[in-house]
Amino acid sequence: MTRSHPNVLVAGFSHELNSFIPGVSTAEVLAVAGPTVVGADLFGPSVGIDLELHAVAAVAAELGVTLLPSIYMWGGVGPVIEDSVYDRLRQRILHDAQLERERLDGVLLCLHGAMATQSVDDTEGDILAAVRAIVGPDVPIVATFDMHTHGTARMAASADALIGYRTCPHTDYYDTGARAMRLLARAMAGEVRPTVSMRKLRMTASAEHHDTNHGPMVEVQGLARELEGTPGILDVTVFATQPWMDVPELGWSVVVTTDGQPTLGQAAADRLGRAIWARREAFRVPKVPLHAAIERARASSGIPVVLSDSADTTTGGGNGDGNLLLAALLRDPRPDDSVALALTDAAAVDQCMAAGIGAEVTLQVGGSLTPDFFSPITLTGRVITLADGHYDSELPVKPRDVGGIAVVAHDGIQVVLTREKASQLDASIYRRAGIWPERVRILQAKSAGGFRAAFDRFSADTMYLDTPGPCDSDLTRLPFERIDRPLWPFDADLDEPWAGAGPDPA
What we know:
Elements: E1 7-17, H1 27-33, E2 36-38, H2 52-63, E3 66-78, H3 83-99, E4 106-111, H4 123-135, E5 141-145, H5 153-158, E6 161-164, H6 173-188, E7 194-200, H7 216-227, E8 233-239, E9 253-259, H8 262-278, H9 290-299, E10 305-308, H10 324-331, E11 339-344, H11 346-355, E12 360-365, E13 377-387, E14 390-394, E15 397-401, E16 405-410, E17 413-418, H12 428-432, E18 442-445, H13 452-455, E19 461-464
Parallel strand pairs: 1-3, 1-4, 4-5, 5-6, 10-18, 10-19, 11-17, 11-18
Antiparallel strand pairs: 2-3, 7-9, 8-9, 12-13, 13-16, 14-15, 16-17
Helix pairs in contact: 2-6, 3-4, 7-8
């Protein structure tokens, strides 16, 4: 390190694009999803607890690194970001980089990797390149990323290391931040020369089988950890890209960071890339038709049975207004049903608030936010709960506000209505609504796999529903227009993981 207490600029932003959600993510929309913070507030509780930024602060304090915090935005997931929002973020980060240029020893950016604006498809690559242009080639830049990063050549060319989550459901936010900060410290001290090698694959796959506790991703991550045992390799990250982005250069990528050995890194990235490609069919997601799933859940000897309405996953871009499960239950009611599900519908919440607890109401619920996939249905029932929308989620631990909550009971079906969409990576929205999720027979999770870290702790069975929506696991049913082709599974007979790859080596 050039100084006994080296100086590191810290900044970032997190938003995940879903191209099949209508509208634009304005500053007002993003403010509902999460905060934008500046200065020391980057490391405060408003952005959550035990996330990347908190690890960066803790490791920096341990190692005697001085942090220069700039700005950070957490915007959730949804349609493209309004250009002006990104422009303000970008200008603030670049202003601070320029201001501190003469005393900077390193840069750490906490990013998501799947954000896009009205006119910029690769905001993370753009910001990394712009910061690099200011600080020059000798100041190391390390960035953290979600596993669902849309990895691009520009990102790889502009940073010294791209460090991603290793778990899905994501439980290693803190560990990822700590890995990044420790690697940056070693680079600033001259102990290592981090160098990025990347292999882009011509494949994508829905998020359900990105799960690192079940299925093919377990082997993939195991192979990545084995490669990290190779002398000279500092980090191996697999980016199983956000599959619902309609942008050029879409596809999985393998990023290997070495100690100044790009040839070694490329060979390792290619080896792991081929292993992923060989397993591609295992990443297809088998779904259960609605009626069959409901009947299986009703017949189950254990409770709860979790039905994943993953095509409307609220942490993948869905608005949470998909009502097909509720409609199916209402078409074939059973006197002993015990069901809890959640829907986003601000107007219905307002009607319940006006009617009051105990009132009988008839509502049009769901289908208003994503009309390309859903239509409103009629729900008649009794208002049993009204609450504000403030609570803390469990995964990650983070303050949430869904704007208001109403629960309407129709026989044994409890419908949790929220003004803003609720994350269902865990069951906290049900607990906030006064429902014990462990005690119902059928429990809905609007999540494409990320829910399992929390729900598997108490569920008796889990099924993925075969329903349409903006997060459909059958990607070929969605109206992609801008992706590069050929790309598996759109081109099912594609036989090379990347152009010129040739046959697998013996």
